[in-house]
Design a protein that fits this description.
The complex is a heterodimer of chains A (183) and B (303). Chain A has 183 residues and is α+β, with helices and mostly antiparallel strands. Helices cover 16% and strands 51% of the residues of chain A. Chain A is elongated and about 80 Å long. Classes of the chains: A alpha+beta (183), B mainly beta (303). Chain A: It comes from Algibacter aquimarinus.
């Protein structure tokens, strides 16, 4: 009986430990932009509705965005992007799932960390390591960074005629401002 | 005994609760899945070009876009021997189309063969959307007018300005049925300024059918047909038909087609196509439309 009581209390403690919601922060209007620089043409697109969430305890991070919310300099480019390149009717989202290595949520100010994870886009997954800056202003976290990724890694078909117009390597910039997440 | 039972239930309950909470904290992507709202509901347009083949599609160009449009039709005369280079006859329509707003565009064009000047306003009333505010169709209104500038259009009619004018009103309704296939119907009303014979109507009702099937990232097959319900009686006319391939890359959009109509303005090709579609001369026309799109505004700077 005593043993049971002890077990029960122990379990309760453990349970409450788990029950305490892991601290998560979310960004609902994250900015993701990409650039393609070639001598023929520069292509730029922005997305201001990217979602991201971080689990502050273990540094796990996820990003999700709709491909059809990208805005292009040229209106027709958006149609081409959605229909001929990224095929957003079939693959509406790009997602990233990973972990911020050696992340310490208690450090105030800036810290530069590597984020390791998988980017899923156009139905193809690729492992990425992204160097990024994390700012912590009294619990308000800002994550930003830049990385390059290859178009051919995502099985995106560029017609030979336009090979000169679209860069092989695309520069991606991101900036997420987080707020506490309550569901 | 009952106390033990309660304890047991509590015990298992607590364990379950723990597991449950633990599993929730695991998947961040699932949380984002629930958070994601597709407020735009954007789907790629049913037709990428403003024309399916010879007729208008529901697509309009966005604000501050100028479209330079050149259409050519080539055909041979029925004579057995011909020494023409390429083709015996050709007709060219040169047109400019400008996006006044994202929904309204204005166009002017001129055609060499039938000497028509044409102009139109095209307004996109409804755009197909998915998601919360889903709309099943694209609806576009077209009002066009043409002026026949040939020196003697018809010997029978009084040669005045209004007699040379024709008007076309179209209600274009399309739907992107799958990511590859789009379909359009186009109820059409045409008023012609003159009738070649007493027996002919001046007002015509027609129905158009068009479709696009995407066969590759940049390539699609298109087809179009118009049926006139009260055709011209003084000479035989046939429904214009076209089968074509669209090649859609960058700022250049190309269309290649086989068709039985050599006219390129709505009121003429719908009511006055004199040949049926077959592979004999001069019925078969090879058509080529080239569109060059010029953007005068930067969408990113607007914000």
């Amino acid at each position: 009986m005593r043993m049971n009581k002890f077990l029960l209390t122990l379990l309760l403690i453990i349970n409450f430990g788990f029950n305490e919601k892991p601290e998560q922060v979310i960004s609902r209007q994250g900015k993701v932009s990409f650039f393609s620089y070639t001598s023929v043409e520069n292509i730029k697109a922005e997305n201001n509705q990217a979602l991201s969430i971080i689990n502050l305890e273990d540094g796990s991070i996820a990003v999700s965005m709709l491909m059809n919310t990208f805005v292009f300099e040229k209106a027709l480019m958006k149609e081409h992007f959605n229909e001929s390149y990224i095929e957003s009717d079939i693959y509406p989202k790009a997602t990233f799932e990973g972990r911020i290595l050696k992340f310490d949520s208690s450090i105030k100010g800036e810290q530069t960390r590597i984020i390791k994870g998988t980017l899923l886009m156009h139905g193809v997954s690729n492992e990425l390591e992204i160097k990024s800056k994390i700012e912590n202003n009294d619990g308000k976290y800002i994550l930003s960074g830049t990385f390059e990724t290859l178009v051919k890694d995502y099985n995106i078909n560029i017609p030979p005629l336009l090979a000169g117009n679209i860069a092989k390597s695309i520069e991606v910039n991101f900036k997420f401002e987080y707020e506490p997440y309550e569901n | 005994m009952s106390l033990m039972k309660i304890k047991k239930i509590l015990f298992t309950g607590i364990i379950f609760m723990g597991c449950f909470h633990f599993s929730i904290s695991q998947n961040l992507l699932e949380i984002l899945e629930n958070e994601q709202k597709d407020t735009l509901g954007y789907i790629t347009p049913a037709f990428k070009m403003t024309r399916i083949t010879f007729g208008h599609s529901t697509e309009v160009r966005s604000k501050n876009i100028l479209e330079v449009f050149v259409a050519n039709r080539f055909w041979d005369l029925p004579s057995e021997q011909s020494q023409s280079f390429g083709a015996d006859r050709m007709s060219t329509r040169f047109a400019l189309e400008y996006g006044i707003s994202d929904r309204l565009s204005f166009g002017v064009g001129a055609t060499t063969f039938d000497r028509l000047w044409d102009s139109y306003l095209k307004y996109n009333l409804v755009t197909q959307k998915k998601g919360e505010k889903a709309t099943p169709f694209n609806i576009t209104l077209l009002q066009s007018g043409s002026y026949n500038s040939s020196s003697r259009p018809y010997s029978l009619v009084v040669n005045d300005f209004s007699g040379r004018l024709s008007f076309t009103t179209q209600l274009l309704i399309s739907r992107k049925i799958s990511s590859d296939f789009s379909f359009q119907i186009s109820p059409t009303f045409i008023h012609r300024g003159f009738a070649a014979s007493e027996a002919d109507d001046q007002n015509f009702f027609a129905m158009g059918f068009g479709a696009r099937y995407k066969i590759g990232p940049h390539l699609s097959i298109v087809s179009e047909y118009y049926k006139t319900f009260n055709p011209i009686k003084s000479f035989d006319t046939y429904g214009p038909f076209a089968l074509g391939v669209n090649w859609e890359v960058g700022d250049v959009l190309l269309q290649f087609m086989l068709t039985n109509t050599r006219n390129m303005v709505e009121d003429t090709f719908i009511t006055q196509t004199r040949n049926n579609f077959n592979f004999r001369n001069p019925n078969l026309n090879f058509g080529f439309n080239a569109t060059y799109v010029i953007h005068f505004s930067n969408r990113l700077k607007k914000k």
